[in-house]
Amino acid sequence: MPNTLITGANKGLGKEAARRLLAAGHDVWVGARDPERGRAAADELGARFVQLDVTDDASVAAAVATIEADGGLDVLVNNAGVATTFGVPVGDVTAEAVEAVHATNVIGVVRVTQAFMPLLERSAAPVVVNVSSGLGSFASVLDESRIESKVIDLAYLSSKAAVNMLTVQYAKAYPGVRINCVDPGYTATDLNHNQGHQTVEEGTDAMVRMAQIGPDGPTGTTSDREGPARW
């Protein structure tokens, strides 16, 4: 039974991925910044809860200690993310606003991955799934036939492009760990005010699939629910 941690799992894609991975036989930790919401989600799902704020070193270190003491970690899903500048004209987006989004979406991935890597390297089949977006794909945002090309946002899109490159670099640095990123697609969540055309189940197809790959699975790739995706 793989031990799996999903960050930002108290709602949306993270919560649905937790539900589906529990059904697939994983022992899932719901990581959430808010203890009340996180514990409620974990109790509802039948998962375990760990308080985890990806922007805080002490919080991440405490989560590592908790999970290490309770069996270690096989699968890490870096799902926590924020989008606070959608709809704001690029010229009005401040450096502080970009920094705040990147603190969670980019630096948070680095902080959590670095902290948990020693536990993952002890696993027989370690896996990292980074939740990115088609909005971070140069190929997609420059293709006028795709919905991604219609979105202009300085902070979120640049953060997801950074996640794509982090994924490649981590995959190169840790060849014994399967490290990939996924594009959930345009899914109805709080992040987009529930405007997406996909359900959260459809949006978690790639997350769930890539969280279950074995030691011979791909690494350094990106995919969506249909399969390999463009960077």
TrEMBL record:
Keywords: NADP, Oxidoreductase. SUPFAM superfamilies: NAD(P)-binding Rossmann-fold domains. It holds the Pfam family adh_short. It is an enzyme of class 1 (oxidoreductase). InterPro entries: NAD(P)-bd_dom_sf, SDR_fam. Its EC number is 1.1.1.-. The keyword Oxidoreductase applies. One of its GO terms (molecular function) is oxidoreductase activity. The keyword Signal does not apply. Belongs to the short-chain dehydrogenases/reductases (SDR) family. This is 2,5-dichloro-2,5-cyclohexadiene-1,4-diol dehydrogenase LinX.
